């Protein structure tokens, strides 16, 4: 049971080596943390033994308190917290932070199956939220264990969107494969952007090339491996000299003398999930046009991390191919007609990304609303400034 203290007791712990503070009626022992505090010793020392609620919320997001919960030693007797701690996966109460259907408004797009799916996914993902945030702080590689948990929960397959690939998948909430549509999209809501890209972004944009264009025996091998989280795949199209300009790709594949292999040489850049991928669905130049090849990580294929400003978890990679041998049966679709594969894939990719982006946009609005309400400057909250309210109104 949590210990109970009076404010007078807390006030007696006001030295650097014995330092308690109060945040929203909870008591934190900062003695061991003060030297590690990213904001330095001074700001906490100034508030030693005192109520630091306003100072804390003016400078930190609530997640900081949840993460450092271990320093909480008790509560103030006869006081109740005034600030609600958001439970992982809970529906946000901030205006526009959620789809209006979740906030009690009628929507023609959301049916019972969406509600069941949302509740089940938030429960699964809520349980993993701390792992995801931790992941973003470290080297960023989503573990095999995490991938396999997501796979077993059916979430990897669901993120590809509706389609025959969902038959036989245990969809969260007991949703049937033919009920599933693009509005069953919950992942982005609880997963930080970089982790989202590293866990599903690279794979969601690449696995359709296997589902739709791989030879049956390859499809039957690779799809279950990827959907169960045991193997990872990425889409390797852009290059240092040709980003969106797909027609100018230079990575090339030449048929071996006996016609059994392609020999691939070239480079790919900004490949999401590439650092961790086992398979690369790769655009290459063949003798009369572009082709798509499924390339396994093998001799001659190397990946280097590209440091991005947003997150190491996205696994963004620079990929080099040096005389990589690829069996001809790994051709996706028809030789020299890879452009069709790429464009049909882009259609799907943009739709899935759009759903994710709409969630990400809602999260941005939510974070701004919350910060404007808690951050105090010039003697008042940011939200009390008309110019800030005007900006928020412009975001909706
Ligand atoms: C449980 C207590 C506290 C914890 C766990 C904590 C933790 C942190 C962390 C993790 C940061 C890095 C920035 C971030 O992630 O938001 C930070 C920054 C900071 N903290 Fe704290 N802190 C605590 C209490 C306080 C208090 C009471 C003050 C007093 C004013 C304070 C002042 C600051 C300042 C000035 C910064 C730098 C903010 C910036 O970069 O603009 N912290 N703190």
UniProtKB/TrEMBL annotation:
Flavoprotein in keyword set: yes
A GO cellular component entry from the record: cytoplasm
Cofactor needs: FAD
GO biological process: fatty acid beta-oxidation using acyl-CoA dehydrogenase
Annotated transmembrane regions: none
Protein name (record): Cytochrome b5 heme-binding domain-containing protein
Keyword Flavoprotein: yes
InterPro entries: Acyl-CoA_dehydrogenase, Acyl-CoA_Oxase/DH_mid-dom, Acyl-CoA_Oxase/DH_mid-dom_sf, AcylCo_DH-like_C, AcylCo_DH/oxidase_C, AcylCoA_DH/ox_N_sf, AcylCoA_DH/oxidase_NM_dom_sf, Cyt_B5-like_heme/steroid-bd
SUPFAM superfamilies: Acyl-CoA dehydrogenase C-terminal domain-like (SSF47203), Acyl-CoA dehydrogenase NM domain-like (SSF56645), Cytochrome b5-like heme/steroid binding domain (SSF55856)
Family under the similarity heading: Belongs to the cytochrome b5 family.
GO molecular function terms attached to this record: acyl-CoA dehydrogenase activity; flavin adenine dinucleotide binding; heme binding; metal ion binding
PANTHER family: ACYL-COA DEHYDROGENASE FAMILY PROTEIN (AFU_ORTHOLOGUE AFUA_6G10880)-RELATED (PTHR48083:SF28), MEDIUM-CHAIN SPECIFIC ACYL-COA DEHYDROGENASE, MITOCHONDRIAL-RELATED (PTHR48083)
Domain annotation Cytochrome b5 heme-binding: ranges: 2-77
UniProt keyword list: FAD, Flavoprotein, Heme, Iron, Metal-binding, Oxidoreductase
């Amino acid at each position: 049971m949590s210990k109970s203290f009076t404010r007078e007791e807390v006030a007696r712990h006001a030295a650097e080596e014995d330092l308690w503070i109060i945040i929203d009626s909870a008591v934190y022992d900062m003695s061991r943390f003060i030297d590690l505090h990213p904001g330095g010793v001074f700001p906490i020392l100034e508030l030693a033994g005192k109520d630091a609620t306003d100072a804390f919320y003016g400078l930190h997001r609530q997640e900081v308190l949840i993460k450092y919960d271990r320093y909480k030693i008790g509560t103030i007797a006869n006081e109740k917290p005034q600030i609600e701690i958001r439970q992982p996966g809970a529906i946000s109460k901030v205006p526009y932070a959620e789809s209006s259907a979740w906030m009690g408004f009628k929507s023609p797009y959301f049916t019972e199956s969406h509600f069941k799916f949302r509740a089940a996914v938030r429960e699964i993902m809520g349980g993993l939220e701390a792992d995801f945030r931790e992941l973003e702080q470290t080297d960023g590689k989503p573990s095999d264990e995490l991938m396999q948990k997501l796979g077993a929960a059916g979430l990897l397959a669901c993120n590809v969107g509706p389609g025959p690939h969902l038959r036989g998948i245990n969809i969260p909430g007991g949703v049937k494969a033919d009920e599933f549509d693009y509005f069953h999209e919950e992942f982005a809501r609880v997963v930080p952007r970089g982790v989202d890209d590293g866990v599903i972004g690279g794979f969601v944009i690449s696995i359709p090339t296997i589902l739709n264009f791989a030879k049956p025996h390859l499809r039957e091998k690779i799809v279950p491996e990827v959907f169960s989280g045991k193997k990872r795949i990425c889409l390797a199209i852009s290059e240092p000299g040709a980003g969106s300009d797909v027609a100018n790709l230079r990575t090339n594949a030449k048929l071996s003398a006996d016609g059994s292999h392609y020999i691939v040489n070239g480079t790919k850049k900004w490949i999401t999930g590439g650092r961790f991928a086992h398979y690369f669905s790769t655009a290459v130049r063949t003798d009369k046009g572009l082709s798509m090849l499924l390339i396994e990580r093998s001799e001659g294929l190397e990946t280097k991390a590209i440091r991005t400003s947003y997150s190491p978890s996205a696994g963004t990679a620079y990929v080099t191919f040096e005389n990589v041998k690829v069996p001809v049966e790994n051709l996706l679709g028809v030789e020299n007609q890879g452009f069709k594969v790429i464009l049909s894939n882009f259609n799907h990719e943009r739709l899935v990304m759009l759903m994710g982006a709409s969630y990400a946009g809602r999260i941005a609005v939510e974070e701004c609303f919350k910060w404007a309400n808690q951050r105090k400057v010039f003697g008042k909250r940011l939200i009390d400034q008309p110019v800030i309210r005007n900006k928020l109104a412009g975001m909706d």
